[in-house]
Design a protein that fits this description.
The structure holds two protein chains of two kinds.
Chain A lengths: L1 E8 L3 H11 L3 E2 L7 H21 L7 H4 L6 H4 L2 H5 L6 H29 L8 H8 L4 E7 H5 L5 E6 L3 E7 L16 H25 L3 H23 L1 E2 L9 E8 L4 H11 L2 E5 L21 H7 L11 H16 L2 H17 L5 H20 L12 H5 L7 H4 L3 H32 L5 H24 L10 H17 L6 H10 L1 H16 L3 H24 L5 H46 L23
Antiparallel strand pairs in A: 1-7, 1-8, 2-7, 3-5, 4-5, 6-7
Chain B lengths: L2 H37 L8 H6 L3 H23 L1 H39 L3 H25 L3
Classes of the chains: A alpha+beta, B mainly alpha.
Chain lengths: 633, 150
Amino acid sequence: MKKVSLVVMEKNREVSLEKLREAGVLHLEKRNVRSDELTKLLDRKAKTETALGVLRSYPLENGAAGKIPLDGGEQDVFSSDTLNGETPPDLVARILELGDEKKALQEQLLVNTKERSRIEKWGNFDPRSFAEFAEKGIVLIPYELSRKAYESLPEGIIVLGQDKTTVRVLSVGKEIPGESPWVLPEHSLAEIDALLADIRDKLADIENRLQALACRQASLEGEQKILLERIEFETARAGMETADNVPAEFTVSWLTGFVPQDELGVLKRAAAENGWALLADDPGEDDNVPTKLKNNPLASLIRPLTDFLEVVPGYNEIDISGFFLFFFVIFFGMIFGDAGYGALIILASVIGILKSAKKPPILKLLLLLGLSNFTWGLLTCSWFGVKAALLPDVLKNISLPLISNATADRSAMDQAIVRQNLMILCFSLALLQLSIGHILAIVHTKSLKILAHIGNIAMLGGMYFVILSLIASNEARQIPLYPLAIYVFAGGFLLNFVFASYEGSIGRSILESLKNIISVILGIANVFSDIMSYIRLWAVGLAGAAIADTVDTMALQIGGIAGPVVVRFMVFILAGGLLIFGHGLNLVLNMLSVLVHGVRLNTLEFSGHVGLTWAGTAYKPFAKRTIRVSTDR
Amino acid sequence: MNLGLIGAGLVMGLSAVGSAIGIGIAGQAVIGAWKKCYIANKPAPMTLLAFGGAPLTQTFYGYILGFLFMKPAALAVVNDPQRGSLFLGIGIASGLAIAFSAIAQGKAGAAGADATGETGKGFVNYMMIVGICETVAIFAMVLSMISLSL
């Protein structure tokens, strides 16, 4: 990346920005800017998003939307001709108006429905008649009393009605002590019913109008895109600084940004054509340089995942895309761990690739992941969680005996050995990936700090054997703790201690390590836990296998229920449904586990050993992105 | 009375209880985050389901442990009554560890769901914390298996 400063004549500011946008290669430096125009645009954007949100809850029906006859001619006011015309009507304002009206009416509906249920049992009477009676000297006070309260009352009370728990009475002339009177409603029951019916009609009308306008979603989405562009433009325009104390005719404004080295030529040409001044230099240490990743077609398969996770390495950091992809594919296979699921994923991605014209990279990534899953399931003899003993011999024979379920089934000893092999594999992957991390760091380091990384690799190697001996050993096979491993670890620790903070002087580096002695010692525990963390690949795969096994067992038990043909048929359907639901749920849980664990091992443990902080911003140049969208769907 | 088998039942049950509580906590926050999106007329992100469903796996960690207990546990008492109490002790302790890991994961997931729903950013950061919570359960399961030579 090159850091670029661009100077233009102030009077040509907007034209220059237009031309810059057409060039589409400069990533503008982020600035906090304010302007009236920007505020108006942001406000309009928020309103458009709200309007779009309101419309999205109305499903689009082909043709039906246009056929509802409306009063007020909603369809004519907002037809595609008027929306594409010179002065289009304000669709956003109309939708927001309808939305607000709908909310207000819904609140009124709620309030009135509540009131109706409160006064329902009193029947349909005119509340104003109480005042009329009072004017004529008859004071009537209504009460809603509990049965107990009613029974303790003196005579002279008119009972209007009662049910299991309450009694509705009228007290003539005087209040009942200790009881509060029933609050008279504003309207009679009939009036409230009429009001409710009116509200419901109005709501239905609004629903119809909004449903009719649902087909204009495309127009709103187009407007949203145009607004985003205008906001970007206005931010750039307002972000340009201007020289003070210079006459308007001659004053200049400038902006700064970043452009990839191989696209600098485009910018230089644009500058020459438009009479701009351009200064291109290497970015400094403090600059927040955007990152543009360049990968070979295979490594770029990981892009859909990193885009989804929104992780971008810092400009000065190492790009681990290739290794991320390689290890993520392996982790996916181990966590899912079933050839049956792998086959389903391969099938789904192949169908997707064949059907779609554009062949999105996410499907290619999915195909690769499915192949990994299938391969691992094949090697471990896992097919939809079915017990190895029930599988045909051909499947058992093509699996890898060291890690196969078929081997494990032979005896408890074999099972223990297979489990140990899997654990050794997990820890070996840990050693491999974490060492690669340090090797990558070594390639990018130019000083004696390389020795610190070599020390780290030695620590990883030594700890690997310690863990194998402590954790992976079991009654079937005891892995000895080789003294060499301890020596290698100790040597690595020393190297790391001396060179970890090396900035030119060994003495100062040792002093720095002594100052941070606690974190240096905790570093030993970190090495242990980083390698141990990889055991999750086996553990989570085991959990998935347990779920699949449980589902199969349940389905078999249900399927084994004897009875007449009808019962057998129903039982078959039930067992089938259970299998589909159970394995479907297992697939979803496995996906979740991959997201949590497979990604975590790459972004936390691996990245930690590479020294990556994922602190980057993606390269997003100031460029034209939209074309006018047709309002017809 | 076979203490080991009691341990097997407890490890399964306690883990499931923890999962249930964790899912309840996370689930409420996910629903709340979706509600806030609907009120603001924003699309409700389905990725929040990942936070709600994350504590579910602890049930299976407990099941795996309990299932493994049941094989040697019965023998343990016959051959060595003391091992039965070891199985009981580890069953309760691991069950509780896995359960609390699920509860912690539910709380972390709840915060993650709220943050993602409001800002739409940082999904992977929150997921990493959720993953760290699950590490406790994984270690509890694995180290229990190793300590009991299962």
